[in-house]
From TrEMBL:
Cofactor(s) in the UniProt record: K(+); Mg(2+)
Keyword Disulfide bond: no
Family: Belongs to the pyruvate kinase family.
Name this protein carries in UniProt: Pyruvate kinase
Enzyme class: transferase
Amino acid sequence: MMHRTKIVATIGPASSSRETLVQMVQQGMNVARLNFSHGSYEAHAEMVGLLRSVSEELDTPITILQDLQGPKIRVGMLPDEGIVLKVGEKLTLVPQSEDRSASDTVCIDYPYLAEEAKPGEQILLDDGLLELEIFAVDGEAVICKVVEGGTLKSRKGVNLPSLNLRLPSMTKKDQKDLEFGISQGIDWVSLSFVRQAEDIRFLKQFLVERQADIPVMAKIEKPQAIAHLDEIIAECDGLMVARGDLGVEITPEKVPFLQKEIIRKCNLKNIPVITATQMLDSMIHNPRPTRAEASDVANAIIDGTDAVMLSGESAVGKYPLKSVSMLAKIASSIEPKLQFVNNPPATTDQTHALSEALNAIDQILNLRYIACFTATGYTAQIASGERPKAMVVAFTPSIDVYHRLNLVWGVKPVYIDREGTTFEELVEIAENYLIDQQLAHSGEQILIMGGIPTQISQGTNFLKIHTLKKAS
Ligand SMILES: Nc1ncnc2c1ncn2[C@@H]1O[C@H](COP(=O)(O)OP(=O)(O)O)[C@@H](O)[C@H]1O
Ligand SMILES: C=C(OP(=O)(O)O)C(=O)O
Ligand SMILES: [K+]
Ligand SMILES: [Mg+2]
């Protein structure tokens, strides 16, 4: 792995074959995002199996991120080629239950629209690409006029920025989907359209009741989430700057500064943050990105994002592989030039104290590897928070931690089936791995960080500059 920034790719029809997945991982994909707004359980289950098998074959972790739809309104199923909306024409929106599909009628999955819609209000479709104006309400039907036309495809999103949605943050569908995700052993779960900290507490309680230890990510894409940002960050394990909906729910010109704010706050708390949507949008159709897109990716990395994400580019685009390798190239090119600010420790515990020392050593000695021993992932995450020049190689005896840590900036997770207990054993594990994998050479100095005895989590209590002795 050359790049420290992690690459998330949304999996869809363009990236579902084993061959494509293998190549995407080889090109630098670290995290597979399964968008539960789309696809059947059968298809998702098959994908989880495929990803686990590719991960084993390539001996590399792949984080599986289950993305829950949340309270998002979507249009129903339409013909494969979509329907064309022309400016000035009428389009009628009806609740799903009505099930009247005609070329001028589209179903949406929100039953209260007719009750709440007011003539003159704006409705945006497909992340704002298409625009409607409400013209009249007739019973359950909302009759609109097309203001900005284009092709509308199945299951595209519907935004009514002025509407206060009467939907719980975790819908019945989300609950069912998460039950399914738990049964599939997903590594992270993200919730769309989070509005308040309570939404995350509800999700976490749902997991606790099912004894599922899965980290939770809040997708920031509503004005209410911006208003409650600090409380939300306090409750969750990661964040996503979901710029697709955020740019519609707020306005596009406000997104760049919000992105910087959200990333900065996550960096301060040492939780991973993903910058998402339209990063290489034109690569859905073209083999090369626009200069503005290349800049956008580099700037998100300069902002301090842990990960950058592909959506349509990898799910339905013509160039899923080239999109992944372009992200990897941009990351590898910008990272050596970065100068991160040294954040104050988020908490005053031993791990943070040692990681401050780690940062000082990283600045002075040009070491290439920090071998980090971690049972929960915590130590590796704090080490990553220093944004060291050296790569954090996180040795963990937990297969779950091995997969989930792959979302975190600069961390290369390594699964160890034999848990070392003494200091000497840990050194030996690090030494064997780095030399056998031909990552480091005998005589090279590395940093080793961990806690002994190893059974106690968060008991990080040593940091050693070690000279590798093992011969290859
Ligand atoms: N699992 C899937 N099956 C089929 N199509 C998918 C899948 N995941 C994503 N897509 C397609 O890729 C597009 C872009 O992905 P994404 O940004 O995740 O979706 P959306 O914006 O609809 O939530 C989607 O609108 C959808 O058309
Ligand atoms: C990532 C996002 O969510 P989704 O693709 O599910 O709309 C977004 O809105 O940017
Ligand atoms: K640093
Ligand atoms: Mg969204």
